[in-house]
Design brief:
homotetramer; 204 residues; mainly alpha; Arc Repressor Mutant, subunit A; 9 helices; elongated; DNA-binding
DNA sequence: AATGAATGAGCCTTCATTCAT
DNA sequence: CATGAATGAAGGCTCATTCAT
């Protein structure tokens, strides 16, 4: 029927979507979520404004897709780590370091807040974001649990510890906003140590 | 006419300003910073829109004043604590608890991010916010230092520890956004313990 | 409190609203409902676009207000006629003539259709329009009933006759669209005669 | 290549055009003329948007073609009736009944109004629509004339009566908009009676 | 000081139409 | 012919800010 390659089109379409999401993230990271408008996203993506709407239904749709993608990727990463045969502290260290190293990550945190906060956002989106956040807590709690069994992570409810760890990472991420200098270095090592069981207090 | 009236007027004016700031905070806490507009703030304050502009130059002016006031109050509070004759852990505990308990606090954190982030915001405001944030780190670091001397707080750069502590508190605060349920309880005790030196690892 | 005259303001506000409705009707009558946009209405009213929104919540709000006002005025007029001590045929004649003579009336009919038809219009508005239309049928039916009792109006269900009469008037009104010449004159006399009982077929 | 193929192609093209017009009418009848867009028409027709433009030059082109086709079919029908050997009242009755029974007919009336009304529509199209409307009045007037000669239709200018009859039908059709309930039944018999000469007033 | 009507820039979104493939 | 991605011009609506009263 079609004189064009349907499969290729489909692939192109998916690539384009991803590209728009990338650009949206860039714009948010650059300008903040308040100032990030569709026009700028389109420009960043090298598309016309109208064309963006061929790939997404609305601005909120774009934002929630960015958030969803980020949350899913993040969750997958943590889950992968949970399965590894490693010292839990090393896992935390690695997670911490790679998170801090990615400059766009703070945009996710900002978006998470904005989507929660903005009353005009579809409540379902807000719930979905919360659901994913909560779900992502689970593999992190599993890592804590592993560490506790090995006696290298402090005692306490693993889920609560996971929650604190994630909140700390998020809190730190926010401090890393572009153009905002903090006179304190962030060291994964020190962060992990807060959650580590000291050598001499371990059960024999 | 009389000097007393001038003084009284000045006082009234200051009271009004404070009232507007209170209401602005309320609105932000209720609607989120994106949806908080001047009209709503004026309505909450029982004033006309135009009249609000008799007390503040712009919306940004209001927001930055809210933030500034919050940061200053917060800084004063921490400084006061630093001077007390108390176990550092109790100080942290009290700071933590009172922060979490105040539902509007998350609005400050949101605002901090928004003001940092928003390109359109006067760069001087952004720098001022950062400056105050950094300044507020100092008394917190002092508390850490006190705790370390008493052997009840973990070792490490006090300022860095203070930074982590504040970031953790901020991160947790964000999770407390209104209408957003997190299936984990926040306990000041557990938080403080992360920064505490375990009994049996203390130097004699 | 206010340095301005509140009552006068309220009156001004109501006058303004009416003025906007008048202008909206003019624009619709001139350009058709499809082409009638808020900008044009504002221009016709000598206001800025934004200011129109100080008086109405939305374009649909304006349109439905225009319609409502027209329907209410029309209903009132028919009801007044129903109470008069006149030959029913004269009543119909007068209603017919005055309706046809008002050039904007066709806009109401167009609007009625558009509001019914347009899926994006609030269903409640649509129902309200229908409700008023149906309600307005009643006094017209009463006139028919009076005429039948006097033996000057054709027999049949008065409400149905009213419905036909109104539909005929509406149908004719539509033909009177501006810039649309129909080579047939519209005579109230002839129209009324269609609904009249012929002399020699009346019951003695 | 062969002339037969060219003919066949031509036929196929014509069939396609007709199909598109059918679908356009369906969409208009379903969504109203304001919401009827090219994309929906294409989807209804099972074609791509671009392909529709291989058969019509513009959206207005489609709409005016729909209208034209409808008007021509309608005119042909009335003309056919005018030639029949039947009581004029039966002709009116049949015309009335078949018109009311076809649910899409109201779309024509709506379109007629929209095309007349819409400033942006090519004036030639508007004139063409008016011309056809006027032309279609002629066979209807002929039926009236026949009825008057047989003494079964009320006296008066036949063309004017035709105009009233058509306007009444159109007015009633508009009341039949989808999703719009009118608490009055429409009976062809009663309608025709309005235009009928009563038994006992006929000339011997 | 107090009011809120008025302004106008800017944002999101839609859609007829074009065009490379 | 067939496709649907791409364009860009409007249109509806919001809102910070101003200003006459």
């Amino acid at each position: 029927m079609s004189p064009r390659n349907v499969e290729k089109d489909q692939l192109l379409r998916e690539t384009r979507r991803e590209h728009i999401l990338d650009c949206a993230l860039q714009v948010i990271a650059k300008q903040g979520i308040d100032s990030a408008n569709v026009k700028d996203i389109a420009k960043e993506a090298g598309l016309s404004v109208g064309n963006v709407y061929n790939y997404f239904n609305s601005k909120d749709d774009i934002f929630s897709a960015v958030l969803q993608r980020g949350q899913i990727n993040y969750g997958r990463k943590i889950s992968d780590h949970a399965l590894l045969e490693l010292d839990a502290r090393d896992k935390l260290h690695e997670i911490c370091e790679s998170w801090i190293a990615t400059p766009e990550n703070w945009a996710f945190t900002i978006m998470l807040q904005s989507i929660r906060t903005n009353e005009t956002v579809n409540p379902e989106l807000r719930e979905a974001a919360t659901r994913r956040f909560t779900a992502n807590l689970e593999p992190m709690a599993e890592i804590m649990r592993q560490g506790q069994e090995a006696g290298v992570i402090v005692e306490g409810d693993p889920k609560q510890l996971a929650f604190y760890f994630v909140s700390l990472i998020q809190g730190l991420t926010l401090q890393l906003a572009p153009g905002y200098e903090i006179p304190v270095s962030i060291q994964a090592k020190t962060i992990v140590r807060l959650f580590s069981q000291p050598e001499n207090s371990r059960k024999k």
